[in-house]
Each structure stands twice: as structure tokens, then as C-alpha cells.
Amino acid sequence: MFRRLPSVYILLIPVLTIAAGVLGYYTYLTASRFARLNEEAIAASSLLLAREKVENIESYVIRQDNAVFNDYPLDDPDSFEESWRPTSIDATPSVRSVMLLNEYGHVVGFASRAGAQDRRDFLDVFHQDIVQEFEFDDTPLNSLKHLHGRFRDRSYLFSYMAVRHEGRRMFLVAHHDTGFIVRSQFPTLFSTEAGRSIYNVVDVDNRRVYGPSLASAGDYVVGHRFPTTLYQWRLQIAPQQATQLETQGSLGRSVQLGSLGMSFAVITMGIAFLLYAASKERRLNEMKSEFIANVSHELKTPLSVVRMFGEMLLTERVRTPEKQKQYLEIICRESERLSGLIENVLDFAALERGKQKYDFHERDIGPVLQQAIDAFRYRLEEDGKRVTLEVAPDVPKVAIDEQSIVLALVNLLDNAVKYGGGTAIEVSVTCSARSVHVRVRDHGPGIPNEDLRRIFERFYRTPRHREVRGSGIGLALVKHIADAHGGRAWAANAEDGGAVVAFTLPAV
Questions:
Q1: I need a labelling partner for 168 at 20 to 30 A (CA). Which of 62, 192, 271, 406 fits?
Q2: Helices 474-484 and 402-419: angle between axes, nearest 10 degrees
Q3: Domains observed in the chain
Q4: Contact, 170 vs 164, CB < 8 A?
């Protein structure tokens, strides 16, 4: 039989066999590398989020420490309770009691919001079990330290500071209600549907303090301990998509091994497909790597600003009230910027996994868009931009998820601020047939034609704007939201200059 075949076909048999083996091996390596990059990206993003939430809680505790310690009258400790209690619930809600100790650790001043019996019980456990755990001898003057632990099967958190009064070394101590912190602050941090299912807090004995069990997440749990205040606790994150990665990776490798058998018959087509897939995959990996780097930079920059100005305020290096107010405004502004980025990342992850739930109601689009503009006002003022909103009089109502539409417009405004020129940004709403069109126009250089069809892709950023900070998911979010509402997202260049990025919604 082989003698009847031309010699070229006989030579092709080992060539095809070798090529098939090389194809299969390279496909397996590519799939493994892709799965590993995905896991590393998820772990890095999750750790950044964990650190941000931990720092929020720590800042909450330290702000209250400074409030009570700065106002404490060392000359007249007995008068402190009378001045502190009326405002304590609003100003220092987690602080249950404040004490002044002498150099021997004896209580010489005591103020508490608790009743008589609770006061006696607290002082009993404090004298019997707690006071000896403080590091009084190693505490520098005016340096804030913390003690966190379990005593008599209850969690306690103390903040303390060594001070000098009339030549004597004394100690200010604030007792924080850890139960109140858990009840009041943790739900705020984990308020989204995704947050409630992928976050928890555990103690050193791995007992849950808050949140669901993450035992089913396996190796995909990222943890970050509270470094300063609640240092016996650890915040854990188990991204839901991580467990899916493992399944997808295993399924992908099975499919690829199966295709190895078919590659003997279609080796030429397989090689061509592999080259295309490898190029596309490499491009996606590069965009994901850039996404992680951009998100990391976007998080680190405002965090550094917040930390720097916070430390200046804590160390009392800022003497004038005007400067203090200026620094606090900077901290608030950078914190809002952080929150916006984190919400974008979480919202995008929820949309990608199909976990986002929409609550549609008939609404007038104008007030909803105005809400988005107001929410973005600080960023507009910071960059010297002004926004005008024009709603045509005949625009009908639309069935929308209000918060999603706000998020979509905020991302369009953010895009116009970053890449548009001039100071004016125009938001307009018109209708045609059964559709409502929301357009955001800037007066910048416009969008290159080769980028118009790609700007709504996830992680995509135009090559000429690589120096501009961004995550590459803002416009992808807009497209997801428009599609979920039965509309579409689109972009074009205005005839007289600038870019128009818009989305369309079905009218009611």
C-alpha cells in the first residue's frame, strides 16, 4: 500500500506526527501559563482590596483615640466624664471607657458610658487579667499603642499612650467595644452582595468573628492581618471566580488533550489556529498584566496621600485649623477616589460572573443623570471641568436600574475628563422612535478610527494614552450595563472636533 503513495506523502507522515506532538505540548504549556497568570492576578487584586478595608477600620479606631486623648484634662481627670459622655455616642461611638493610670498601672481616673454593674465587672477583669498585659515600660512618650486579646472569653481592644504630667509618667487608656465595631463598621465595608459572600474576619484560633465560612474556597483564600489595632484578627477574601478558574482550567486542558488526537488530520489548520489563539491570548494576558499594574498604581497613589496627610495630622505637625481642614479635605477626596475604583473592579467582576442583579423601575432619565453628575462633582472641580446636562422635552420614561445607570454615566464622565480637552463636557439626552440616547461629548482630539471599535473591550486602552492612569474596564462596564438594559453602547467622533461616547436605552 505504501509503495503506491508518492514519496512526498510518506515523508509527511513523520512530519505531521512531530508537528502534532509539538502542537499539543505548546498548547498544554500555554493553557497552564494562562491559568497561572489568572490565579496570580486574582490573588494580587484581592490582597489590595483586603489591605484597603483593613486600613479603613484601623483609621476609624485611631481617629477616636486621638479625639479622646487630645481632650483629656490631666489636671482634672474627674471632670472628663461629664464633658465627654454627652457627645461620645456621635464623636467616639466605639469607645466605652477612658482611664488614666499612674506609673504603677493603678486607675486614678475613670470615665465610662456603661451602667454601675458593668463598670464594676469591667474594672474587675481589667485589674485581675488585663492590666499586666500592657507594655508600659516599653512605651515611648506620646506614642499610640494597642492591646488586643481575649480575656474571660471576650474580645477586648485597648488603645494607650504614655504622657508626662507634673514630672510623673502616666498612661491614657481607651477601651473600645469590639462588638460595636463588628456590628457597625464591618457591614459597611462588605455591603455589596459579592462582599457578603467572599469576605470574612477570623481570629488567631481561626474562629469566625464576622462573615460566612470560606472553607469551600480551598487554596484561593487571601488574608491580611490587622497590623496595629485589632491585630488578633485577620481579614480574608475568597474570590468567587477563583474556584471557577480551577474548573475552567481543568476543562480547558481536557479539551486541548482531546484536540491533540484530531490534530493529526488537521495539523495545518491547527497550527494556523494556534498561532492566532496564541497571539490573542498573549494580547489578553498583556492587557490583564497592565490592568493589575494600573489598578495597583491607582490604589497606591491615593493610599500614600491619605497615609502621609493622616500621619501629619496624627503627629500634630499641622498647627492651624485651616491647614487641618485642607488636609482632611484631601484625605476625603482621595478616599472617594479609592472607593470609586474599588467599586468599579467589584462591579466588573460581578458582571463578568453574571452575578449582578438589576432592579428595573420606570424613571425619568434626567434626575438620574443629574445624580451621577453630582456624585462626580469633586473630580470635575479638581480637574477644572464643567458639565452641562440638556434633556430634550419629549424624552419618555425608561425602565432602568438606577444605580447602574449612575455608574455608567460616571464612567463616561471619567473617560471624558481623562482623555478630552478643554473645560466643557456636554451631556445630552434625546429620543428617536422607541429609544433614548444618552451622549457624553468632550472637546479633545477625538478617538482614532482604529480604536473606535475596540474601546468597549475589557482591559483595552488606546496606545497613545498609555501614560494616562486607568484600569481599562470603565467603558467595558458601560457596555455591560447598556446590554443588560436591552440597549447598546457606541462611540463616534464629532464633526467639529471631540469625541462622543454614548449608550442607548429602550423607551417604555
A1: 62
A2: 150
A3: 72-181 (3.30.450), 361-506 (3.30.565.10)
A4: yes
